[in-house]
Amino acid sequence: MAQSAVVDDVFYALSNTTRRQVLEQLFSGPASVSELAAPFDMKLPSFVQHLSLLEKSRLVKSKKEGRVRTYEIAPEMFKIAENWLTERRQLWESRLDRFDEYVKNLKESKS
User: Fold this and answer.
1) What pTM value is reported for the model?
2) For residues 102 and 100, what is the distance between their CA atoms, to the nearest angstrom?
3) Which among 9, 40, 8 has a CA at the least distance from the CA of 24?
4) Rounded to an integer, what distance in angstroms lies between the CA atom of residue 13 and that of residue 51?
């Protein structure tokens, strides 16, 4: 059940366009809050809520040096999302393979 909550947190964080755009920025390397916020037309407190949620979901991590907080990607959590999607894909591929086999058998029995 705990694993399910982690997956929920990751996908909830990824469900928002702003947060996905922040992650895209961070894939280029670490950035400060002001650098991350620059492309967005929103008040800083609202933007910081997005960063907090990304950090809570452990998709990013931050460190503070003096008055500057810098964020960077935490790649481990992306593996959880990838694994969940891979499991679903394998399940559906298996189901589709069985359906394909059923249809082939059905066609053969009719001919």
Assistant:
1) 0.76
2) 5
3) 40
4) 10
Strands (E), the chain: 31-32, 60-65, 68-73
From CA 85, how far away is CA 94, in angstroms rounded? 14
Average pLDDT over residues 46-68: 96
Strand pairing partners for 62?
Answer: 71
- CA distances 6 to 39, 40, 59, 75, 87, Å, are 29, 28, 11, 14, 16
User: Which value, in Å, is the radius of gyration of the alpha carbons in the chain?
Assistant: 21
Over the stretch 21-55, which tens digit does the pLDDT of each residue have?
999 999 999 999 999 999 999 999 999 999 999 99
Q: In whole angstroms, give the CA distance from residue 41 to residue 14.
A: 20
Using CA atoms, how far apart are residues 86 and 3, in angstroms rounded to an integer? Answer: 15
| pLDDT for res 1 | 40
Question: What type of residue is 96?
Answer: L
CB 30 within 8 A of CB 65: no
* Residue 107 φ then ψ, to 5°: -65, -40
